Amino acid sequence: xxxxxxxxxxxxxxxxxxxxxxxxxxxxxxxxxxxxxxxxxxxxxxxxxxxxxxxxxxxxxxxxxxxxxxxxxxxxxxxxxxxxxxxxxxxxxxxxxxxxxxxxxxxxxxxxxxxxxxxxxxxxxxxxxxxxxxxxxxxxxxxxxxxxxxxxxxxxxxxxxxxxxxxxxxxxxxxxxxxxxxxxxxxxxxxxxxxxxxxxxxxxxxxxxxxxxxxxxxxxxxxxxxxxxxxxxxxxxxxxxxxxxxxxxxxxxxxxxxxxxxxxxxxxxxxxxxxxxxxxxxxxxxxxxxxxxxxxxxxxxxxxxxxxxxxxxxxxxxxxxxxxxxxxxxxxxxxxxxxxxxxxxxxxxxxxxxxxxxxxxxxxxxxxxxxxxxxxxxxxxxxxxxxxxxxxxxxxxxxxxxxxxxxxxxxxxxxxxxxxxxxxxxxxxxxxxxxxxxxxxxxxxx
Length: 446
Prior knowledge:
Helices cover about 30% and strands about 20% of the residues. The protein is α/β, with parallel strands linked by helices. The protein has a domain at about 65-370: Alpha-Beta Barrel (TIM Barrel), CATH 3.20.20.140. Strands 1, 2, 3, 4, 5, 17, 18 and 19 form an eight-stranded mixed β-sheet that branches. A six-stranded parallel β-sheet has the order 9-10-11-14-15-16. A three-stranded parallel β-sheet has the order 6-7-8. Helix 4 links the parallel strand 10 and strand 11. Helix 7 runs parallel beside helix 8 (about 245-255). The longest helix has 17 residues, at about 215-230. Residues about 435-445 have low confidence and may be disordered.
């Protein structure tokens, strides 16, 4: 990552701070990695000290914060490394990636947290902030050392794609979280109800001859956890909800003033179970793609603000784990590089305003995790993106930076592209000036 020695002036921009309702014409100055000031003048006078970047009337917004991404390093670098994940993130406008603890070894000790932070500092071009395991080995039996893991740099606690099924363990975790002010994130899916299920339970699953996963696998776990939150007052985040019944549970929790937030996967916002089509394994996901009524319900809940954040649920898989019969294929799809473009479908369809969308992608994740960023204001980190919400393109998997290519958006027509990404005022992705693109080549292995 090349540092910009001179202060920067972004001119001819549409400034979008997500707390406002719409972008406004203006310019923005950056110095020493921070936003120095915002002007209502699109083309202010600048001294010779400044490097001027003409945004061409495009939108300038805070960088995205993705609260759920699986990165193979350490232990599965063949699927994804911190470098390749960060390159994909930068190209997609994500300036902070929250990594899941399901690595090898599992992120359940301070030493492993420290390793990821140091490794990311040396190789990644965006911010990588790890969530630590909620239980040792993510086995759901014994809590990890929350205090020591937080001191090492963990931003929250989760068992990733595994749910804590033992209610006593979850109660203890929430109690400790309440004492420490920590955040517990749960994948709300009862594995016993999922069993051998591979897609949403319903008529389509029956027609395809596939074992279904009932919505109750999600709602029973969510309902139980909400009752434990009420008992302990620990901060709780449901990583992804996907159906109408879960929305009803979330609404009641918020109406009762519980310390509860929730997210939704971009996949459940943009696809439904019919997209599985002829057993397309890139659409085998967890939670599974639901029917169209559920998809419309989560979109409405997002627009209302009931669902707090959108996540990529980035989960790279090798060809060997995806090119299998649908029932045998691994769950997961990549999503870092397409997160913003896919989310903009909701804006173009009129389901949500651009400001509300950016709150779910940037402002709310920063608030929930207690991270800087998510706002455009003087003194804030200059984690900034410039994007054209209307530029159309076709997704070419060979042009994605992720090491794995299991994207459900292959050959999809999307609208909206990032042209510039900055992290702490340093340009890490740039198509305005390709000759100045500071994304480094992938490091040589061995």
